[in-house]
Q: What sequence folds into this?
């Protein structure tokens, strides 16, 4: 899959589909609370205790890769309490 | 390790830190210290561009109302006192504020002390020493307990 690194919705959708198809069942059994970076081109997964460690491993294996970061077992990788009025429009369509 | 002083601005806890990407010297920013944010740094995408932060992809964040939003992510190097840590930078399309969150404190191993007039980040081991002197046990480190408990 060739995903352009501009629109987060496209990357997230691709990454989430790969995660659910290939990794979710096993990871939620064994690795709840850890972080996984999904390479949306190769479908490889990089698992770590922290978000920066997962992305560091992913970038090390594929320096030009595009990755979707997931916290296993959570709907979002991060919680945000203070945000820009909840708006969600991007510069890049 | 030095104490890192912050300040309150209109009742909001803020801290100065520096951030760098692949281009040039670290740039100083003032950030809101947001313990309801579980990540490292969240910043407006327009302020991130000049730093040359390497984009890495996306992530999904959960808002306080339970809704989810997809965000672009980059890797950046934060400088706090004499220490430097790499972390995930969440890029906001609309915000004008920079946030530092719980992963920032975890990564720098800092404890946050907040009073009605000021704030300071101290070495976590200092906090543990104070707690031990006061006869308080310090609970083991753990990642946060999931969603919705801010």
A:
């Amino acid at each position: 899959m060739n995903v352009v690194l501009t629109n987060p919705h496209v990357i997230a959708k691709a990454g989430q589909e790969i995660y659910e198809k290939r990794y979710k069942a096993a990871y939620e059994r064994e690795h709840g609370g850890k972080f996984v970076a999904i390479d949306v081109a190769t479908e490889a997964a990089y698992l770590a205790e922290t978000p920066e460690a997962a992305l560091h491993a992913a970038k090390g294996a594929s320096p030009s890769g595009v990755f979707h970061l997931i916290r296993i077992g959570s709907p979002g990788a991060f919680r945000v309490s203070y945000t820009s009025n909840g708006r969600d429009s991007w510069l890049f369509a | 390790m030095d104490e890192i002083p912050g300040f309150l601005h209109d009742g909001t806890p803020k801290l100065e830190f520096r951030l760098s990407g692949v281009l040039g010297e670290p740039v100083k920013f003032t950030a809101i210290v947001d313990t309801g944010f579980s990540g490292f740094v969240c910043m407006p995408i327009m302020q991130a561009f000049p730093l040359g932060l390497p984009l890495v992809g996306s992530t999904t964040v959960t808002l306080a109302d339970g809704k989810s939003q997809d965000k672009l992510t980059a890797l950046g190097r934060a400088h706090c006192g004499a220490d430097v840590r790499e972390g995930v930078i969440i890029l906001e399309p609309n915000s004008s504020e920079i946030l530092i969150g719980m992963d920032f404190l975890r990564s720098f191993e800092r404890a946050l002390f907040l009073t009605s007039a000021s704030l300071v980040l101290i070495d976590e081991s200092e906090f543990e020493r104070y707690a031990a002197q006061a006869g308080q046990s310090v609970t083991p480190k753990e990642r946060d307990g999931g969603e919705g408990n801010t």
Summary: The two ends of chain B are 29 Å apart (CA to CA). The mean pLDDT of chain B is 87. Chain B has one domain: 4-133.
